[in-house]
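G., the chain you wanted modeled:
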Amino acid sequence: MKTIIKIDPMTRIEGHLDIEAVIDNKKVVEAKSKGTLYRGFEQILTGRNPIDAVQITQRFCGVCPTPHAIASSQALDNAFGVMPPDNGRIIRNIMQGSNYIQSHILHFYHLASLDYYRGPDIPPFVPRYEADYRVPETVREKLVEHYIEAYQIRLKAHELCAIWSGKMPHMASITPGGVTIIPRIDNITTSLWRLKELTDFIDNVYIPDVITVGQIYRDYFQIGKGCGNYLSFGLFDLDSEPEVTKRKRFFQMARMSKEKVYPVDVNQIAEDVKYSWYDSSSHKHPRQGDTTPNPDKPGAYSWLKAPRYNGESYEVGPLARLKIAYETRSNPKINQLIDETLNKLQVGSDELCSVMGRHIARALECKVVADEITGMIMQVKLEEPVCVPHQIPDSGEGMGLWDAARGALGHWIEIQNQKIARYQAIVPTTWNASPKDDKGQAGPIEEALIGTVIDDTNNPFELARIVRSFDPCLACAVHLAEIGKSEKTFRVI
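Predicted structure as tokens:
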């Protein structure tokens, strides 16, 4: 007999997500990922001064405003025909790197780690659902201590970004053509001081904690694989090539299918909306996309659209970036770090495609990024330009492609009469938490849930662990709550 389980809302994520799963003989046979909030930023942006987009798109999310500021600025760079000078390019990279550190530490300690151990019987650790907690008491006590310590560490990462961005969240110093901050020697010295604290925590606390949890929950290297395709738009510009798809980046722009790496053809991206609450047409590239909400659309179940690459679903995020880097051997240090960690865990590289693999990838990437920022800070040249002049064209189009902490992020702008005529964004969680496409093909989170064995349908903690491993950010992805009934409804804490 089939049972429908509905987790509503999914907590300890950013935004409003509802998960529905059909269980047959204790196994998930169908899953739905439902974004349940409409925000309408596309309509807010239409008709405004194009430069406003840099600030407005940051308000997609308070956790990850930085990549939206950069992707939006890149779209405007493209539309205005300008490129930042070296200082502007490097400082943007430093801002983004600090946001990665903050976001990754936030995800493990304050969003996902409590899936694996009990906190104290006081708020914010209660109320909670019960799971198969296996962590020994001595380890649990250390994890709780690190949970609390991580709040201060995240503050240091925010401060590192604010040194260059003016404030966090929502940066003030980024603009088309570069940045507005004039670097001084104290920017460099105080950044390096904070970065040392961050690096010490990552190396000596964060990575060891994730490895410890991975060793205890080794079976979660076999759970939640997903669609098996991976996409990255790349991270950290290393040159000033105007064409974004040809630009050299520290993490390269690439996709991976059937364990082989291929270049990205942006023209192969399109969005389906058969199961989304929109009257927009399916199969449209975001350059031509539009956002026409219809909350009463028959058969629809999500405010997320379904982006696809050449008709296939792709997972994005830290796992995608590290798998591509590992397969291409583009950075020997990354391969060495991954191999050493896999050896400690006694798992193969193929087992990274899993719940626990996503946590491992995020922690290792945090170290790689922190180490890279040190060199970036030393590349900033005092008394050299940080921005180039720009003018708003009467008409034009622009595209910004970038990897946020959670994965591939694209911003597309069309300008007419010096105003925004169209603005579309495909964010990481639109890829990962997308509903079925017009062919009925499940999105990556839905695919990761299918086949999961649920030991207790009254307490489906396995589903929560899988979903949280993707680090969903629905605030970015959805643009009304569904009214309905299901056999079982859970409020997951």
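The CA atoms of residues 413 and 423 lie 5 Å apart.

Shout if anything looks off.
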